[in-house]
């Protein structure tokens, strides 16, 4: 079983910490099976549910810093993109964190169940000599308390997420299940993880210490 850490309001600290060798609870294993989810490079689980057959010209600059370099079977055709793609994405008590990454395309998120906290580094809005704005918010069904049912992350922003208890002040979670629609459609050529050196340059020293645990070892 995963352990739960103390998480005060608005603190960016892990709430659920999985231990090596732990397995998902049976009802979560059933959800993963029913939705045909697989593990994601960012953490959590996903499955692509739609890829628009309409192809559009690739609007992005081609470079060599993308996550496709980590994959042996990625599509290397950079001339076009699907008009959109959609996935299910799931965080669980045993796989509770989605590490910092960014896409070139904008991503619309829609909540299905559960609660989580998102952290956004607005790296696309940096002014010379200034540190980036860091935004954090809770996604969930308690709209009266400001929890979000939908949220948009524009391209160029670094994003991370982690699981919260299903109820504020609680200590259990059935998992955070969302959909993500990427426009134009997702390709790993348009994706990269946040390196530690880049985090150092983007945020203050205090923020760097607070956010370091959300970095990927793949960066």
Describe the structure.
The protein has 219 residues and is mainly beta. 11% of the residues lie in helices and 35% in strands. The strands form four sheets. The protein has a six-stranded antiparallel sheet with strand order 3-4-7-14-9-12, with no helix packed on it. The protein has a five-stranded antiparallel sheet with strand order 11-10-13-8-15, with no helix packed on it. The protein has a two-stranded antiparallel sheet with strand order 1-2. The longest helix has 9 residues, at 26-34. 34% of the residues are buried. Mean pLDDT is 90; it is low at 1-7.
Q: What form results from the Cα inertia axes?
A: globular
**Portion of residues within helices:** 10-25%
Strand content: 25-35%
Following the backbone from N to C, one meets helices and strands in this order, namely EEHEEEEEEEEEEEEEHH
What is the average of the pLDDT values? 90
Radius of gyration: 17 Å
Uncertain runs? 1-7
Largest sheet: 6 strands, antiparallel
Short description:
The protein has about 220 residues and is mainly beta. It has helices spanning about 25-35, 195-200, 205-210; strands at about 5, 15, 40, 45-50, 55, 80, 85-90, 95-105, 105-115, 115-120, 135-140, 150-155, 160-165, 175-185, 190-195.
């Amino acid at each position: 079983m995963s352990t739960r850490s103390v998480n005060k309001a608005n603190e960016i600290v892990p709430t659920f910490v999985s231990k090596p060798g732990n397995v998902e609870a049976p009802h979560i294993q059933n959800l993963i099976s029913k939705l045909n989810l697989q593990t994601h490079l960012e953490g959590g689980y996903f499955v692509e549910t739609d890829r628009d057959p309409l192809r559009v010209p690739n609007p992005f600059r081609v470079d060599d810093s993308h996550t496709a370099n980590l994959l042996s079977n990625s599509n290397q055709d950079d001339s076009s993109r699907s008009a959109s793609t959609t996935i299910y994405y799931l965080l669980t008590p045993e796989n509770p964190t989605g590490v910092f990454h960014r896409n070139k395309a904008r991503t619309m998120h829609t909540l299905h169940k559960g609660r989580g906290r998102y952290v956004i580094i607005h790296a696309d809005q940096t002014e010379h000599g200034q540190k980036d704005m860091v935004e954090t918010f809770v996604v969930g069904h308690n709209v009266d308390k400001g929890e979000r049912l939908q949220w948009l992350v524009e391209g160029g922003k670094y994003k991370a997420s982690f699981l919260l208890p299903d109820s504020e002040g609680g200590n259990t979670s059935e998992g955070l299940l969302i959909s993500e629609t990427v426009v134009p459609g997702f390709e790993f050529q348009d994706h990269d993880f946040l390196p530690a050196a880049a985090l150092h340059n983007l945020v203050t020293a205090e923020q760097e210490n607070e956010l370091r645990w959300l970095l990927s070892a793949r960066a």
